[in-house]
Write a structure and sequence with these properties.
By secondary structure, this protein is of the alpha+beta class. The protein is built from six helices and 17 strands. The strands form four sheets. A six-stranded mixed beta sheet has the order 3-4-2-5-6-7, with helices on both faces. The protein has a six-stranded antiparallel beta barrel with strand order 9-10-16-13-12-17. Strand 9 and strand 10 form a beta hairpin. The longest helix has 20 residues. The protein is elongated and about 60 Å long. The structure holds guanosine-5'-diphosphate (GDP). The site of guanosine-5'-diphosphate has 16 residues, from helix 1. Belongs to the TRAFAC class translation factor GTPase superfamily. Classic translation factor GTPase family. IF-2 subfamily. It is found in: Cytoplasm. This is Translation initiation factor IF-2.
């Protein structure tokens, strides 16, 4: 899916999967994202205070999994519209007591159109009215056949509230990722996608990125649309200062001249001059397009 075609396959290494959680309102997308983050700590980082930066990684048996921390399909769709297909696997959350609803169907449609594999998390299993078989039957009608019914889609019962089934869900994600053989070249100059950005007092423009290929390091000359700069800091959702992030990893980048829109591509350039010129060309191009519309 990523820039694998023009890479020498000998340079490619396994990379973590990037996950988007979708599903009907109130079925527990936000709760599940919080439960996963609170249950697992990535990179041996100390626990404690986390900040919402738009993405985070957790570690399961020594393997990383990166989650887009913006539930729903809007972020997914806006990134896809910009040509940035970040998501490797979609987890569709369905409340066990409520079953398939309009936004569940929409999520299934999004996944099918984008040809992204799905794992179904049947949430709220702690509720007395939980009916996982109903969910399976309804999802099977939409073409998502459960593995235990002879199909190829993993369904995992979870409770974001009681914190059950989280390990099983992460195992299912790693299994799916293994089948997909996701690869990237960590030795390249980085290419990343902006998932969230803002102007911060003191820090200036900051952008949360997920690296698609290569490794992003402190000191790298970067360009991001018409913004440019040098990586001054890389900060994780646990406020750790990182020296570098590899493929599928995420951090807040400090050091851009401007706030880039989400979905924008961030690239490392050989020199400061090159980054500046690239950004200037992009600025003129955008301005020209604005004027001619
Ligand atoms: P979202 O709209 O899909 O992001 O759903 P939320 O995460 O905001 O959850 C909606 C409501 O369902 C909240 O009141 C949650 O506390 C509740 N909820 C979420 N997960 C569970 C669960 O596993 N069990 C129960 N009983 N309630 C849950």
């Amino acid at each position: 899916s990523y820039e694998e075609d023009n890479e020498d396959s000998a340079d490619l290494e396994e990379r973590p999967p990037v996950i988007t959680i979708m599903g009907h309102v109130d079925h527990g997308k936000t709760s599940l994202l919080d439960a996963i983050r609170n249950a697992k700590v990535a990179h041996g980082e100390a626990g404690g205070i986390t900040q919402h930066i738009g993405a985070y990684s957790v570690e399961q048996h020594g393997k990383l999994i990166t989650f887009l921390d913006t539930p729903g399909h809007e972020a997914f769709s806006s990134m896809r519209a910009r040509g940035a297909q970040l998501t490797d696997i979609i987890v569709i959350v369905v409340a066990a007591d409520d079953g398939v609803k309009p936004q569940t169907r929409e999520s299934v449609k999004h996944a099918q159109e984008a040809k992204v594999p799905v794992i179904v998390a049947i949430n709220k299993m702690d509720k007395p009215g939980a009916n996982p078989d109903m969910v399976k039957a309804q999802m099977a009608e939409l073409g998502l056949n459960p593995v235990d019914w002879g199909g190829d889609v993993e369904f995992v019962g979870v409770s974001a509230k009681a914190m059950t089934g989280i390990d099983e869900l992460l195992e299912a994600i790693l299994l799916q990722a293994e089948i997909m053989e996701l690869k990237a070249n960590p030795n390249n100059m980085a290419k990343a996608v902006v998932v969230e950005s803002t102007l911060e007092k003191g820090r200036g423009p900051v952008a949360t990125v997920i690296v698609q290929n290569g490794t992003l390091k402190i000191g790298d000359n970067i360009v991001c649309g018409s913004a440019y700069g040098r990586v001054r800091a890389l900060i994780s959702d646990r406020k750790a200062q990182l020296q570098k992030i590899g493929p599928s990893e995420t951090a807040v980048v400090v050091g851009l001249s401007d706030v880039p829109p989400s979905g924008e591509i961030l690239m490392v350039m050989e020199s400061d001059k090159e980054a500046r010129e690239f950004a200037q060309k992009r600025y003129e191009y955008d301005r020209h397009r604005e004027l001619s519309h």
